Amino acid sequence: VLLLSMVFAHTAVIDLNFPRSSDASIPELNEEQLQLQLIVRKDGFSLADSQAGLIKRIAKQGDDYDYNTLSDVLRAVKQKLPEKTDITLLLEEDIAYQTLVSVMDTTRSYPAVVAASLVEAELFPDISIGDAPPQSQTPEVAR
Predict the structure, then answer these.
(1) Closest Cα partner for 126 from 22, 20, 32, 18?
(2) What is the reported pLDDT for 51?
(3) N or C: which end of the chain has fewer CB within 10 A?
(4) For 10, left (φ over 0), alpha (ψ -120 to 50), or beta?
(5) pTM for this structure?
(6) What's the CA gap between 104 and 89, in Å, rounded?
(7) How many whole angstroms separate alpha carbon 44 and alpha carbon 37?
């Protein structure tokens, strides 16, 4: 009876990489050291890189974040940097937990059709999480 009443739980584990403290002696970044940053604010997303600055700002549509546009922009970046697998999510204070989960799901993969089957294609599965810089320090340079 005890064995029949057991409930099996399936848990998923996501490995997170927390950013290390910065070192002032780091030389100028090259393509392999490029760091993608997705800043999540109450008014939308800002995707930036450590070399060129702001790549794309994606405003909210009404009260909802625009995850479809974010996925499209991340796919375009992945085409330019196919070997890149890491991204840093920087969240503003009071961002809802569900928003964090949805952003992580969007940055990790996207649905793609391969050989008439729907699969999850990889984007940036190695995710680090941190605090967003103040609004005045957001990168403003666009490519």
Answers:
(1) 18
(2) 74
(3) N
(4) beta
(5) 0.69
(6) 8
(7) 14
Residue 18 CB partners (closer than 8 Å, separation 6+): 128, 129, 130
Dmax (CA) for the chain in angstroms is 66
Most confident of 16-20, 97-101, 130-134: 97-101
- In whole angstroms, give the CA distance from residue 58 to residue 40: 10
φ and ψ at 109, to 5 degrees? Answer: -160, 170
Task: Classify burial at 36, counting beta carbons within 10 Å of its beta carbon; exposed 0-12, middle 13-18, buried 19 or more.
Answer: buried
Helix (H) or strand (E) holding 109: strand 109-114
Q: Could you report the per-residue pLDDT of 54-100, keeping only the tens digit for each?
A: 888 999 988 899 999 999 999 888 888 888 889 999 999 889 999 99
Which pairing describes strands 44-49 and 126-131: parallel, antiparallel, or unpaired? unpaired
Start-to-end Cα distance in the chain: 65
